[in-house]
Design brief:
alpha/beta; Aspartate Aminotransferase, domain 1; Aspartate Aminotransferase, domain 2; seven-stranded mixed beta sheet; four-stranded mixed beta sheet
Length: about 400
């Protein structure tokens, strides 16, 4: 059954594969009951933005989900696909960009396409699963450094550059902009500084940073003012744009190489036109309505500052991702979630061992631009009560059966 499947009988439908119903937003239905939802990556609230819904509907009416038919290289190319790529490249200040149908699949295929057996990779130990799976396809050498440890990074980089020189290959460094579990940022400013000493290219996965980070929402590379030093920028539409798909932006020569060699795109149907039309509208709103991002950060600051004021450990998050780290066992974590959902009507995600160390419970909160300060105030109060119950041992045992 695997590490998660072993819990299927007791967990499916509640802790795993839960069904959230109704309009996407802070208030949704879970098992027939309204809950305050902190578990969707709808950062800017675009999922139900009226202009987005209108663009999605009009795109579906005009083109249908079948258009275009075929892979882009053969028969699935359109001027709208090209326009979206042009706008994304311009937004990220890169020469060119290329669409991918899915973020996860896209990153795997990008890594597989870029590297040959003579190339060497250096990557962060907490890189997303799509990066790890992409590296599994790499037939050459790879070196990992402990998360954001720049001293170890340089040591691994030095080994990688030496080996690549011997083999006649290159070095690709891969990290993330925002690390989606902990919320902290990849040290892009420190990493690019090593380019003065070592020869390498930098690829970042900024799924959670695109649209949310930086003065204009261009991501963590803009946040650190190193956009020109990031060789390849990867973003997805599944987070701030509340859609599906993604893109890779960088030098025209590299992007064209990917266009003609990425098997996941060459042998897959083109991204349907309604999704492209919708993505164009979403990108327009990110560029023209900074109030969406400002609203998001108002909620983020209120939530994170309020939780810290109550003594909660939020790790080193510097992004909207808000991990609330508690000390407790897996059964206690289970009971906390039961209490939050059943007695406080709060829905958030829980992370326990083996994803985090034993005796650690992480409650992962995702604030959005459409949450309210009242939502924040209620959640902080509820979490404070939960913290006191945990300290008092009230979550020990098999289950929580009623309000406590």
């Amino acid at each position: 059954m695997g590490p998660l499947g072993q819990y299927q009988k007791n967990a499916q439908g509640y802790f795993m594969f839960p069904k959230l119903e109704g309009e996407i937003g802070p208030r949704m239905k879970f098992r027939g009951k309204e809950v305050l939802n902190w578990s969707l990556n709808n950062y800017l609230g675009l999922a139900n933005h009226p202009e987005v819904r209108k663009a999605d509907a009009e795109g579906a009416i005009e083109y249908g989900m079948g258009a275009p038919m075929g892979a882009r290289m053969m028969s699935g190319q359109t001027k709208l696909h090209e326009e979206l790529e042009h706008q994304l490249a311009e937004f990220e200040k890169k020469e060119d960009a290329y669409l991918v149908n899915f973020g996860y699949q896209g990153m795997i295929s990008i890594i597989d396409t870029l590297l040959n057996r003579h190339d060497v990779v250096v990557y962060d130990s907490e890189a997303h699963a799509c990066i790890i799976d992409g590296l599994r396809l790499h037939m050459g050498k790879r070196f990992v450094f402990p998360h954001n440890d720049m001293a170890r990074f340089e040591k691994e980089l030095e080994k990688a550059v030496k080996l690549a020189d011997e083999q006649g290959g290159g070095v690709l460094v891969i990290t993330e902009g925002v690390f989606g579990m902990s919320g902290d940022l990849g040290k892009l400013d420190e990493i690019v500084a090593f380019k003065k000493k070592y020869n390498f290219r930098l690829l970042i996965d900024d799924a959670h940073g695109f649209g949310t980070m930086g003065a204009n929402g261009r991501g963590v590379s803009e946040h650190f003012n190193v956009m020109d030093d990031v060789d390849l920028y990867f973003g997805t539409f599944a987070k701030s744009m509340a859609g599906i798909g993604g893109f890779i932006a960088g030098p025209e020569t590299v992007i064209n190489f990917l266009r003609y060699n990425m098997r996941s795109q060459i042998f897959a149907k083109s991204l349907p036109l309604p999704m492209v039309v919708g993505a164009l509208k979403r990108l327009e709103l990110i560029k023209t309505q900074p109030s969406l991002r400002e609203n998001l950060w108002t909620i983020v600051h209120a939530l994170q500052n309020g939780l810290r004021a109550k003594g909660f450990n939020l790790g080193n998050t510097q992004s909207p991702v808000t991990p609330v780290i508690l000390n407790g066992s897996v059964p206690e974590g289970t009971n906390i979630i039961l209490d939050l959902r059943e007695n406080y009507s709060i829905f958030c995600s829980i992370v326990v061992y083996p994803v985090v160390p034993k005796d650690v419970i992480m409650l992962r909160i995702i604030p959005t631009a459409v949450h309210t300060l009242e939502d924040v105030e209620y959640t902080i109060k509820a979490f404070a009560e939960v913290q006191e119950k945990l300290k008092a041992g009230k979550y020990q045992g098999d289950h929580v059966v009623s309000a406590m």
